[in-house]
User: What shape does this take?
Amino acid sequence: MPEFFKVMSVDEVKEKIREWFGHLKPEGERVPIEDGLDRVLFEDVISPENLPGFDRSAVDGYALKAEDTFGASEAMPALLEVIGEIGMGQVPAMCLGSGQAAGISTGGMLPEGADSVVMIEDTDLLGDKTLNIYKAVSPGENVIRRDEDIKKGETLLKKGHRLRPQDIGALAGVGITRVDVSRRPRVVIISTGDELVEPAAVPRIGQIRDINSYTLSGLVQQYGGEPLRFGIIQDTYNALFEAVEKGIAEGDMVVISGGSSVGTRDVTGRVIGDLGSPGVLVHGVSVKPGKPTIIASAGGKPVLGLPGHPVSAMVIFGIFGREIINLKLGYRGGSLKVKAVMGRNIASSAGREDYIRISLIENHGQLTAIPVLGKSGLISTMVKARGTVKIPACKEGIREGEPVDVEIF
Amino acid sequence: MPEFFKVMSVDEVKEKIREWFGHLKPEGERVPIEDGLDRVLFEDVISPENLPGFDRSAVDGYALKAEDTFGASEAMPALLEVIGEIGMGQVPAMCLGSGQAAGISTGGMLPEGADSVVMIEDTDLLGDKTLNIYKAVSPGENVIRRDEDIKKGETLLKKGHRLRPQDIGALAGVGITRVDVSRRPRVVIISTGDELVEPAAVPRIGQIRDINSYTLSGLVQQYGGEPLRFGIIQDTYNALFEAVEKGIAEGDMVVISGGSSVGTRDVTGRVIGDLGSPGVLVHGVSVKPGKPTIIASAGGKPVLGLPGHPVSAMVIFGIFGREIINLKLGYRGGSLKVKAVMGRNIASSAGREDYIRISLIENHGQLTAIPVLGKSGLISTMVKARGTVKIPACKEGIREGEPVDVEIF
Assistant: This one.
C-alpha cells in the first residue's frame, strides 16, 4: 500500500464517508404493511384521510348538547330526554334537539346536534327516557373529533423513519396497506486468511474457524441490511480480486475481513488498491481496536477492509459499516445509547478513540459499566460484554463514577 | 361477568401470570446458526472444543523463549538466531532451542519450545538470521493460549439468552453450526367490534379500520413470537366463541382486542368466561390505560382480553402479553430501559399504575422525557411517543427533573 495515507480520526472518516458516498441513495420497494416492521420509510407518508373520520365518543354514556348540562351537579341534576340509542358502526338516525340525549358507546358516532358526551357514571336513567345528569360537560368533552387522531393531508410519518408497531397500526388506520420502504442494502461479506476454515469443517492444528463472516452477517441484519456471505476466499491476489469484483457487481457494499497475517493484509490492500478509481480513501484510523482499517471506493461502491481480530472487526463495522448502511437506507434516526456510570478507572491514549467492551450491572436503578478485559482477538470478550463505551480521542481515560453512554452490542 | 373479581395491581397480576402459566415450557427447534439472530436459546451451550485450540500469536513478530530476552533494552539488545518462518494455518516444522526465534504472523501457531512472541516493532533483523531484540517479554506475552478464548466444556451461552451477532460468531468459532432455540410462541390475534373494518376496506361513516391487529402483530414479532392474525371477528357470541376455540387449538395464546362498546365487552367477557376451567382469572387491573383487562386460562392456554383503545391495547400487551411470551420462550434477559429525567410535572392517582406516553429530547447527553398528551383512543399519540414511563401505584405523580426509566415502544 502507498505510504502517504495519513491516519485519520474516527470523526474525520465518518464525515468523509458522508461526502464520498453521499451518492448512495435509497431505492424504494413497496411492501405490505404487515411486512413493514423495522423497515425504513422511503418517502414521507401523507395521510389520505381523517382519522377517525367522524366525531366519535371516547366513553360510554350519552351524547348531548353541552349547554343542556351547564350548572348540573349532584344536588341539582340536569334533566334530559333520551330519544334513542346509537348502534356501533352506524350513522345515527336521530338529530338531537335542545334537552335531548342519545345513548352512545365508546367509539360510537355522535348524532347531529350533539357536541359532547356525558359519562354513564355521571348519570341516572329514570325509567326509559328521563336522564338525570350530575355533572356538567363542556363542548367537545369526551369526543374524539373527526380529525383529532390524524388529519387528512398531514405528514403522518417521515421518510427515513424506522417503522414500529404503532406506525404500522396508524397506516392501517388510514387505509394504507402497502408502503414504500428502502430496499435493504446488500452487504457482501468476504473472509480471507489461509488459516481459516468453515465452521462445519474440523480445523487441523494451526487452523481456525471463520468467525467474522457470522458476526458481521448478524450486524448487517441488525442494521437493516441483507448479508451476502461469500465465505472464505483463498488468500491469493487473483482469488480475492475476482471475489471482490463479483461482490461489487452483486452488492451495494463489500466488506473484507482480513486474515490477520501480514501476507493477507498485503494481498487485501493490493486488491482494494487495484479496484479502480478513486480507490483507497482511508488507510489507518486512530482508533483502538481497529487501526488498520481500509476504506475504498470502487465505481462509487464502498469497500471496507476490516482487521481480522473478531472484536476489531465488529467494533469497526459498528462504526463505519453502519454509517454506510444508514446512508443507503436513508435512515434518519440515531441509535439510543444507554446511560451508565463507569465502574472502574480506565486509561486510554490521547489522540486515539478507544472502544472499551463493558458489561452492565444494575443496582437500585443505576447501571454501572464494568470493563471486560481481554485481547481483541477473543470473541468471548464480546460474548461477555453488553456493549462498548467510547473514550474520545481528547481524553486520557474515564474515571470511576463518570457518566458514560453505552452502545449496546 | 361475575362481579366478585377484585381489581388487581399490575405486580400482583404479573406474579399470578408466572404462577398460572408456569407450565408453559419452551419447546426446542434446531436452526442453522445463520438463522439464529434474536432467537432465544433452548438449552445451555457447552463448548465442544478449545478455542483457538493451539497457542497462537496475537501480533506480528518473532516466537521465542521469554528467558532469552530478559534484561533486553534499547541500549543492550538481546541477540537471537532466526531459524525460520511459520506459515499461516501450518503446524510449525521447527522446535526452538535456547537463543532461537522464528518469524510469526498474527494468528500463527507457536512452535514447540516457544512461550512468547516479541512484536516486530521491538526488533531489528540483521541480515537473514540475526535478530536484535530491544524489549524483554514475559512468558505468555502476545500469545493467545490454546483455551484462552473459549474452554472445552465451559458453558459458552446460557439457555434463555437471546442470540446476538457475537454469540453466533462464537458458536461458529467452536464448530457449532446448528443450535437449539425456543420455538416462537404463536399468538392468535382477534379483533372484534361491529364498527371495525379491514384496513383495505373503505369504511362507511361511523365505521373505523382495525388498528389493533396490526400494532399487536408488530409487538408479538418484537417480543419473539409469531403473530397469527385472525382478523375481525363478528361481534356475536357464536362467531367469537368459534374463533377463540380455533385460536386456542392453533396458538399458544389468544389475544382478543375488544371492540370498545359495552355490547362487545359483554360478549367478549361471556365467551372468555365460557371457555372452560379455570376460566377468568383477572378482570380489571388498577392501571391506566387498560383497566378493563381480562386474563383467562382455557385448557392451560392464556387468553388475554384487551381494551379496544389502541394505546391501552399496546400498553397492556406490552406488560402482560410480553410476560407470557417470555414464559413460553424461556427468555431470561430483561428489557433495557433508557434513563431520562422527566421534563414536566405529571400527576397520577395513587393506587393505580399510570403509563405515560413520552417523547425524548437529547440535550448535552441528557435525555428528557416530555409527556405526549392525548386520549388513549388516539394511535397518533403512540406514533409521536418514543416510549412510556411508569408511575408506580404508590406515587401521586412525577416532578420535573425526577429521573425516570423509559420503556421504548
Q: What stands out?
A: Chain B has a mean pLDDT of 94.
